[in-house]
Every structure is written in C-alpha cells, then in structure tokens.
Amino acid sequence: MNSRTDTRPLWHLMSYALASGPAIQRIRYATLGACAGGALALGGCALHAPPATVAAASPLRWYAGSTVQLPHDGKLTDLSRWWQQQGDLLLVELIDAAQAVSPSIASARTRIEQARAGSVAAGAALGPTLDGTLSASRSSAQPPLPMGTVAQGALQASWEIDLFGGRRAGRNAAQAQFEGAQAGWHDARVSIAAEVANQYYDLRACEKLLAILRSDATSRSETARLSQLSANAGFLAPASAALARASAAEGNSRATQQQASCDLSVKALVALTALAEPELRRRLAEAPGDFPQAASIVISSLPAQTLAQRPDVFAAEREVAAASASVGSVQAQRYPRLSLSGSVGAASFRTGGTNTQLTTWSIGPLALTLPIFDGGVRAANVDAARARYEEAAASYRSSVRQAVREVEQALVILNSTASRNDDALIAVEGFRVSFESTEARYQNGLVSLVELEEVRRTRLAAEIALVTLQRERMGGWISLYRAAGGGWSSSAPAAQP
C-alpha cells in the first residue's frame, strides 16, 4: 500500500500507479513472470471436455409405407403462415388468442429472459469488475485534541484471469442454454397452435356428425310415426311398431349424446383461448363449418434437412453443447486461479479548522490460489457434470428418433386417408341411394321394417366413417405441420418476447 498527498485527478494517479518507478516495475515484471511460468508449467492440465455435438442416427430416406408420396406442393417458407393458407380466419384468430394467454408460452418466455440474463452474467465474468465506495465518519482520538471528520471515496477493481478457460466455458454454456430457450419458445407456440387446431377440427367434425345424427333421428321418428299409424289400422304387427319406436328413441339418444360432445369441445376452446363462450359460439355459427382444403407442406426427401427445422431437436442439441461446456467449467475449478485487484481513492480529513486532502492507490494483491485438498468435492462435481452430459446426449438422440417417428406417422396417415377418400365417397353415395330405395319400398309394403333398419344402419355408418376420415386427414396435416417444425429455422432472428 502506497499513500501520498496529491491533488491530481484519479485517472492520472491510476496511470502513475501502473507505470511508476523502476523498483515497482521490477517487482511487477518478476511477479508476472513467475505467474506466467506457473501457467506454462501447468500447461499439461488442459481441459478435456466432451464434444459439444454428438451423432444421432437418422434414416437416409423416409420409410412411411411402400407407396409413400411426399407432399411437395408447398414452400418451406410458407410453413410459418400455414394456418393463414387454410382460408379459415376464425381458426387463425383462435390460435392467436390461445398463444397470447398460454401458460406454457409464458413459461417459455420467462425461460428466455432467465437464459439471457445468465448469458450476460457469464460473459461479464470474463472481464474485471469495478465498485465505488463512499464513507464518512467523525471521531475524537484524545480528549485534548479537537474532533475530526473523515470523508473517503474510492474505486475498487478486481479481475480473475481465466487461465484455464473455465469462465469462457461457463459463458459458452450460458449462450447455448439461451439459444435452446429461444427454440423452446417457438416449440411452445407450435404446440399450442396444433392443440387449438385439433380441438377446432374436433368441434367441426362433431358438428357434422351431429347434423347426420339429427337427420337420422328425424327419419327414424317419421318411420315410427308411419309404423304406428299402420299398426293402429291393423296393417302392421304391434311388434314392428315397437321396433320402429325403439329405433327412433335410439336415434334421438345418439343425437343428444353427440350434442353433449360438441358442447364439451366448445368448453375446451373457451379454456384454450380465454374467449367468452357466448361470443365464441356466435363466431363459430357465423364461420363456415366445412373442413378446409389443407395447404400442402413441403417435406425434404432427406430426413436430416427436415429434422434441422425442428426447434425441440435444436434445443436438445444446445443442451448437449451446454452440458459439454459445463464439464469444462467445473474441470477448471480443479486448477489454480489467478486474480488481481487494485483501488484508487481520495480522502478528506478536517480537524481544528484545517482540511487535509489525501489520495491513495494500490495495486494488488496478485494472488494465485492453489487447490490442495477438498475431500473430493471438485472431482465429484466433474463426475456429476459428465453424467449430465451423457444424459443430455441420450436425450438428444431420443429426440431425433421421436422426430423421425412423428414425421413418418404423419406421412402414413396422409397417404392412407388420401387413398381411402374416394372409396368412402362412393360408399356414402351408394348406401344413400340404397336406403332411399328401400325406404320407398317399405312405405309400399314391399320390405320389412327390419330390412329397412339394417339399410339405415349401414348408411349411417358410412356417413360417420366419411366424416371421421376427413377429420383424420386434417389431423395428419396438423401432425405433419408440427413434425416439420412449424416454420422455425435456427438461422431466424432471435425471438424477442
């Protein structure tokens, strides 16, 4: 510690302290030389972190059936606006509303902020810190002497030199976590969009089935009415009239049950979007209820290119990089640490009407801390970090396998529903004509009620199967949208929630 009276500015004093007389220069060079020699001697203690990237086996092409056809009509850049391409404005509004109130998206947003703060803090740890202090005191040393007032101000700097890259590894880990959090935010948005769309199309399918069942219930009720008139006139057996009444009751029951299912779907949309139920029902009634012609999604024939578009796979890969850097960070804690501190300040001492101004500066200590014994704590921390790395690597490989599975399953569904659609339409039309013909013959007494009900059940099953098939196809497109990453790209600008 060197102290002297000086009225020059503080930065002049700091410059003087860093470049003062030959004696200090010799001490400084000797100290730095010793530390440099120690660092060179420890050169064999280089960090050996595991690789930041790991290989994950993926197929060379998609295996989604022997006759799989990849949808190539769309553009990859349009995937982020895929919902707008469906032509259903209400669906787009519902998705926007759900994303605005989703707790999972809000949680992902806070994770981005936390990761961003962690990245800033880890980067700042590489540089020096500077703190300012101010103090004032009044005291009396001896009763005969007058009381004195001391006021002090100082700037204190400290810096831990990153000899073995531990702090740099910590910064890299924080940056990887930040990038993964951004991808996780987009993945949450894609998941909410898919959930809302599935619920919306469930409701539309439910409404279509309700219309079919109501029409069927009306037809059954009319058959029961005519059958009762015939039975009352003695032209039909009472058992046949009872069968007709039972069939009508069954039709009404199924329609009532389907109405309850539609109401439950509306409740689910209300919970997802936070919209008022009366307003939502009004808008649902005004919007067209048909299934849209889904816009095609481009899927590369090379799975690796498609998987690179998935935010969850990218986030898992960033977790591997973060875990690798964390291993290097904890490894550095087993090696020596070199730190440097210094300060520069000014003080004022006033007593007995005399004011004395003092300026002080100091450099040091330049401290080298050597870990000697800790009971195996640092080694255990390294083992734990390596175990977390292995866990992250396994999770990444699992994410890749799951991504391949989801894409191929969506492709299987789309190809299957496309192949079955024409047959389903032909079946519906054929059973409709057959039922109308049978119903006309029944009214003329040419066929029995049992035969009529059998044809009715066949027609109803065909109509329900067609709606179910259409809903399944929309679900396949939604699954493919999500499996392809929802339009995310690792080269996209950072999310600013």
Q: What report would you give on this structure?
A:
The chain has helices at about 10-20, 20-40, 90-100, 105-125, 165-230, 240-275, 275-285, 305, 310-330, 375-445, 450-485, and strands at about 1-5, 130-140, 150-160, 335-350, 355-370. By secondary structure, it is an alpha+beta fold. A 5-stranded antiparallel beta sheet has the order 1-5-4-3-2, covered by helices on one side. Strand 4 (about 335-350) and strand 5 form a beta hairpin. The longest helix has about 70 residues, at about 165-230. The chain is elongated, with a radius of gyration of 38 Å. About 30% of the residues are buried.
The low-confidence parts are 1-37, 39-44, 72-77, 493-497
The helix content, as a percent range, equals: 55-70%
Strand fraction equals: 5-15%
Round the mean pLDDT to the nearest integer and report it.
Answer: 84
Radius of gyration: 38 Å
| SS-derived structural category | alpha+beta
Counted by DSSP, the helix tally is 11
Reported for the largest beta sheet, the result is: 5 strands, antiparallel
Tally of strands = 5
- Could you state the oligomeric state of the chains shown? single chain
